[in-house]
Amino acid sequence: MPRVMWKGAISFGLVHAPVALYPAAKHDDIDFDWLQKKTLEPVGYKRIVKKTGKEIDKEDIVKGIQYEPGKYVLLSDDEIRSANVKSTHTIDILAFADASELSFLFFETPYYLAPTKGGEKVYALLREALLQTKKIGVANVVIQTKQHLAALIPTDTMIVLNTLRWGSEVRPFDDLAIPEKGAKAAGIKEKELTMAAQLIESMSEKWDPSQYHDTFRDDIMALVKRKIDAGQAEIIADVAPDKPEEKSDNVIDLTEILRRSLRGPAKEKSATPAAKTVKKKPAAAPRTRKAAG
Fold first, then answer.
1. Measured distance CA(191)–CA(201) in Å, rounded
2. Mean pLDDT, the chain, integer
3. Phi, psi dihedral angles at 160 (to 5 degrees)
4. I need a surface site. Which of 36, 92, 154, 175 has the fewest CB within 10 A?
5. At 49, is the secondary structure helix, strand, or coil?
6. pTM of the full predicted structure?
7. Does residue 90 sit in helix, strand or coil?
8. DSSP 8-state code for residue 287
């Protein structure tokens, strides 16, 4: 079970439902360590006092807000929470909106909301009412020390809280060169639009996230394995260069490109030639570097 990030209550009108917040996303990034180039010793971080350069412990650090140059108001975690107890312990639903009205541009991080003891019925009531009305709840919530705008989105079984960007955080696109709205205004022929729609239909399938994975991560780990097997003595294989871009006139035969896309990839006219056999040298022992000392 993931760790609880927050405990409090959903509040709408006079109704309260005690809930807990859990992270819905996880990260599986490659963990690159930072190493000193000459010695391969790990590089770490230190907490340094800027003025003196002296290293200090985490326990010696406090939070402060500068109100004049060199003058600070110190705030403890308890004081931050007590500044507005309601906001730090409540998911305060401000309004309800049609789910279709919320642009994906505003979505940030998803969290699971689960009821805690005594909140099961009210939680289920809110979930079912949101599903029936096809609405989402728009709420304020404080996670750690930051207030977020959030959407409460119902699924078949649970309510998901998705933090949102504030309106001022989404940049306008007025200065971008976007084609005019509408096929005719954008200079698109009816035949081109029909073929593009056919291509989309031919490539359409039911959404299954398990079909997709981070192939770049796989490639990096495969490279790591090859270097280990070779004792890190040399580069194992050259990376195939990118194909040069084909030069063309400004006029593109879009219909022909769509037609070729609809036909699918061309079949190979001949079998792929057998790869050349290269005798491998015995793997060299990994090089060691003497640590500085």
1. 15
2. 81
3. -105, 135
4. 175
5. coil
6. 0.65
7. strand
8. P
Q: What tokens does 119 get?
A: 């909140």
Per-residue pLDDT at 19: 95
Beta strands 6-12; 90-98: pairing state: parallel
CA 284/CA 290 separation, integer angstroms: 18
The position carrying tokens 């859990």 is 22
- Type of residue numbered 239: V
* Residue 250 in tokens: 């400004």
Beta strands 6-12 and 146-154, pairing class: unpaired
Structural domains for the chain:
6-26+81-169 (2.40.290.10)
Whole-number Å distance between alpha carbons of 265 and 185: 32
Structure confidence by residue, pLDDT tens digits, 24-48: 988 777 777 888 877 778 888 888 8
Cα dihedral value 241, 247, 252, 254, nearest 10: -20
Exposed / middle / buried, residue 37 (Cβ in 10 Å: 0-12, 13-18, 19+) = exposed
Residue type, 260: R
Question: Regarding beta strands 63-68 and 135-143, do their DSSP bridges make them parallel or antiparallel, or are they unpaired?
Answer: unpaired
